[in-house]
Write the structure tokens for this entry.
Amino acid sequence: MSEETNEEKINLLDLSAEGLKFLFNEMGEKPFRATQVLKWIHQYGVDDFDEMTNVSKALRERLKKVAEIKGPEVLEQHISDDGTVKWALRLNCGQAIETVFIPEKNRGTLCVSSQIGCVVDCSFCSTGAQGFNRNLSLAEIIGQVWFAMRYFGSAKVTGERKISNVVMMGMGEPLLNFKPVTQAMALLLDDNAYGLSKRRVTLSTSGIIPALDQLLDHVDVALALSLHAPNDELRDILVPVNKKYPIKDLLHSVQNYLDKSAAAKKVTVEYVMIDGVNDDIKYARQLAKILKGIPNKINLIPFNPFPNNDYRTSREETMRRFENELQSHGMIVTRRKTRGDDIDAACGQLVGQVNDRTRKEERKYKKSIKIQEIST
Ligand code: SF4
């Protein structure tokens, strides 16, 4: 590798542990040097090679010539009354993604984005309503964790691990950005990087079956399923990817994952409660029926309203009845507390700044014209 080059520097946040070792090998350096640098970056949050005190000055100088450590820039930061923090992070392309930190009594969860926008286009989700621009790179995904760790201070320095859990549940469908997402999760689990337990890293998916079937070949993490409806007819509307990957096949794939995973002993089933759409008591019965035999925990999420969307949150009484019905079938049910809704950081409310490349508005307009034509 030429070190006297004007070529763009390699962002070391864009390299997996293996990638860093490969780079060091190319530079004629030993693998343990790569591990030292990996620790400085991901355990201490360092972005200046001169702070890497156990790395020789000569190597630091060589690294400065070819590499950099460059995280995202903060565009906006909002702190909710309940302590939830939401950041809009600007990427090199000028667009922005959102990352949310949710503090709880015994843990702190970071909700991480995987794409700029989302093509899945769930009808209850503001990210989907924005359209899609592109997948995030490894640097842009792990950079969210790196940034948040620097914000709170490295546990190696403060002695307190503020981020105990990471969920791939922000903007985007993580399984549609497979390689960078699995590489980022591998760094989250790596003892030389973030060192989180595999049960504390969760991938949430709308159900991209071929990718889910390969996940364990790359990384073993906890699993959440965005189900939101107990039958295909309803789920086709709420989660359109269901037309391609219907519920029966999806649950089969989930069961396979649970059978082989050491991290996921049960799947967390996400069910957003939308008034008059999926909150009828009959859907609770259907849900209990389809999940029978699959180790699971159902998480009921009150729908979080967003502009230009007509859905409303289910009534409290309806949610209670739904929950009771599930429990009467022996299901474990939790109700997600809405966190950070005063700063639009709640589930389904993340938007960032997305230049839609899917021409969603144009398609919507054509569709509405067609409906008008049919109805006149
Ligand atoms: S809920 Fe998830 S998969 Fe569905 S549109 Fe929103 S970000 Fe995409």
Observations:
- The longest strand covers residues 96-103.
- The CA atoms of residues 340 and 346 lie 5 Å apart.
- Residues 118, 120-122, 125, 127-128, 171-173, 206, 226 surround iron/sulfur cluster (CB under 6 Å).
- The radius of gyration is 22 Å.
